[in-house]
Amino acid sequence: MRERARGAPVVAVVGRSGAGKTSLLEELLPALSARGLRVAALKHASHGFLADRPGKDSHRIYESGACAVALVSREQLAVFTRLADPEREPSLAAALAALPAGLDLVLAEGFSWEPVPRIVVLGAGEAPAPEQLTCGEVLSIVEGTPCPERRRAVFPKSLVEALARVLAARVEAAPPVRSAREPSTASPEACFP
Asked: Using CA atoms, how far apart are residues 14 and 8, in angstroms rounded to an integer?
């Protein structure tokens, strides 16, 4: 079953740490936005992360035991949710459910074990790992050029534009999202691009 975020197709960007996944997203997101698409990024943080700053009111409230804390400003809304089982990785489906409605596409960095379409990012001279090729449809395998002075990989503009075209076409081909009141007449598999 292919995952979707409230109707938006999901494409994973997978590769080993340091291969250039984030660098590719940094170049791909503006190309997709320029096409008028609302794209969300979802990053798997395999080593954990600290989303709030110790000592801030929101952090103190969360540490006091709140099951969720929302931090709101004029420009951003962040919700920190305590997971029921912190020893278990949350599923991609659970992460997608936390995203807002109205998206055209979700690019998930990581999640190589999930059965979703993917772009495989390789480091220089690297071969893809088996799970990168077998867990979901491979849309493209790309290799960035190391750029030590920028401490990241860079990708040719023509490659980024080609990927943006492929992803935009995938969004176009996705069936329209039906309202919750409309009955489904298609099989579940027919609902996923």
From this structure: 19
